[in-house]
Amino acid sequence: MRRAYRLDVRLAVVVTVMSALTLIGAGTILSMEFTRGQFAIEERGLSSQVEEWAELLRREPDGTVVFDRPAEPSVELDPPYTGLLSGTRPVYGYTVTDRAGTVLDRSDTNAPAGRPGPADPEPVLLSGLTLDGTGPVLIAELFVPELGVWLRLARPRSDVTALTNTFFAQSLEELGWAALAMLVVMVITAVTIVRVSLRGLRRVAAQAERITFDNLGHQRLAGASAPAEVQPLIAAVNHALDSIRTGAVVQRDFSIHAAHELRTPLADLKLRLESLASDPDRDAAMQDIDAMARLIEQLLQIARLDGSTVFSLQSLHLGETVAQVLQEAAPRLVSAGWSIEADGLDIPVHIIGDPTLIALILRNLLENVRKHTPVGSTVNVSISDDGTLLVADSGPGLPRGFPRSNFARFVRGNDDTRSGSGLGLSICETAMRRMRGTFSLDPTVSGAAFRMAFSSDQRPEIGQMS
After folding, report:
1. What order of strands is seen across the sheet that includes strand 378-383?
2. SS3 helix, strand, coil % of the chain, rounded to 5?
3. CB 357 within 8 A of CB 434
4. What angle do CA 454, 456, 459 make, to 5 degrees?
5. Is the entire prediction scored with pTM above 0.70?
6. How far apart are CA 283 and CA 362, in angstroms?
7. How far is CA 444 from the centre of its chain?
C-alpha cells in the first residue's frame, strides 16, 4: 500500500525548492543585467577615451604620425576588486593605422588586430582579437581626417567578467546568510500557515473517530471549519453514513418483524409437541424449538441494541440493581440444580447505567451458565468498590484461545448448535458499550469469569442523565 504523504512536509519541500530556484533565477538575471550594464559603461568609457586620445596624435615635420600617449594613472582599488584588470599595464592597448592598413604605431600589449573600417569621424565599437592572438577585446576606432589615420583603442572583455564575478562573490559572502535565513523563515511560515489551515480538517477527523454504530443515528461530520476543497468529501461521507444508517434501520426492522412473526408459530408448534407422548424424537424437537425461541429472543435484543432505541442512563445503586435482577432470574436456575452466591451487594457503589440493560446482561450470563456448565455448578456474582461487577462460574470454562473482548456474533465455544447461537456474549458487550462501560473475559484457573466495568457516578444524588 502506498504510504500517505504529509501535506506540511511536502509543502516545505516545494517551498524550499521554489525559493531556491527563485533566488538562483534572480541572481542569474541580476548577473546578466549587471554584465550588460557594465559592458555599456565600458563601451561609453572606451568611446570617450578614443576621442580624448585622438587629440594626442600629431604629424612630425618629416611627415610621420606620432602618438603622444599619456601615462595612465595607477589607482589603488579596494580589496575585493584588486587584481581584476587582466594583462599587464597599461590597461588600454592601441594601434595607429594608415589608409593602406599599415600599423604606424602600437602598444606593447592588447594592441587590436584587424583592418580599420570605413573612415568615420565618430567612434565605432566592435569586438575582436589582439595582434598577439589574445582576446576577445572591446575595440573603439576613430578616423582622424586631418591626419588620415585611424586610432584603434582596445580593452580586454575579461575585465568586465572578472568584475562581475567578484561583485557577486562579494555579495554572496555578505548577503548569503541573510538569503538563507530568509529561506528558512519562508519555509517555517508556509508550514505554519498550512498547519493552521488544516486545523479545521483535523477537527473533522476527530469527529469521524467518534462516530460509531451506536451513535450513527445522530452523529455526522460538521465541516463548517474545514477548507472549501474538502467540503465535497465531507458531504459525500455524510451521505454514505446516511445510507449506512438507512440500511441498518431496514435490517433491524426486518429482524424485529421476522422475530415477531416466528414467535407465534413456534409457540403453537411447542404446544402441539407437548401434547404428544414423550419419546427421543419429541424431546429432540422440543430442544430445537427452545433453541430457536432463544435465538429469536436474542435477535430481538440485538435489534434493539443496534437500533435507535433510547436507553435511560441514570445514576444507579449497582448492588440494589443486581439484587433485583437476581431475585427475578435466580430461582429458575437454583430450582434446576445450580447454586448462586452474591458478594458485595451492600457496597454503596453508584454507577451510570440502565436497569434494563443490566438485567439483559445478567440474564444472558445466567442462561450461558445453565447451558454450558453441569448441574451443581456454582455461580458467584460479586461487586467491587470501583464499580466492577464480576460473574464467575465453576464450570469447564471456555476453550483455549477464546477472545477476551470484542466478541463476534454467532461465535460459539463449541460445535453444538443446540447449546446456543453464539450471540449472548456479543449482546452483553454491546449493552455495556451502550452504558459507556466495558465487558471482558477474566483469566481464571477453572470456569469462566466475566468482568463488567461501569462508569462511576461521583454524585449519586443526580437523577436522570442523558
Report:
1. 339-343, 378-383, 388-393, 449-453, 438-442
2. 50, 15, 35
3. yes
4. 150
5. no
6. 28
7. 44
> What's the mean per-residue pLDDT of the chain?
78
The angle subtended at Cα 444 by Cα 439 and Cα 445, nearest 5°, is 165
As a residue count, the chain comes to 466
Vertex 355: Cα angle to 295 and 338 (nearest 5): 60
The alpha helices in 142-230, defined as continuous H runs, are 158-197, 199-210
Measured over the CA atoms of residue 456, residue 460, residue 462 and residue 464, the dihedral's sign is: positive
Cα(92)–Cα(50) distance, integer angstroms: 10
| Phi, psi at 406, each rounded to 5° | 55, 55
Is-contact 220 241, C-beta < 8 A?
yes
Q: What is the dihedral of CA 117, 118, 121, 124, to 10 degrees?
A: -40
Distance CA 413, CA 400 (A): 9
**Contact partners, residue 122, CB within 8 Å, separation at least 6:** 142
Inter-CA distances, 62 with 58, 66, 97, 98, Å: 11, 11, 17, 16
Contact present, 291 and 310 (Cβ < 8 Å)? no
Distance of CA 465 to the CA centre of its chain: 38
Instruction: Summarize pLDDT for 13-57 with one digit per residue, the tens.
Output: 787 788 778 877 877 787 777 667 767 777 888 888 888 888 888
pLDDT digits (tens, 9 = 90+) for 312-347: 788 889 999 999 989 888 888 888 888 999 999 988
Q: Residue 377's Cα: distance from chain center in Å?
A: 56
β-bridge pairing 378-383 and 388-393: antiparallel
Residues 358, 391: Cα–Cα separation, whole Å:
12
Whole-angstrom CA distances from 387 to 22, 298, 382, 429 are 66, 27, 10, 17
- Rounded to an integer, what distance in angstroms lies between the CA atom of residue 71 and that of residue 57? 15
Tell me, what amino acid is at 311? F
Identify each DSSP E strand in 362-427 by its residue range. Answer: 378-383, 388-393
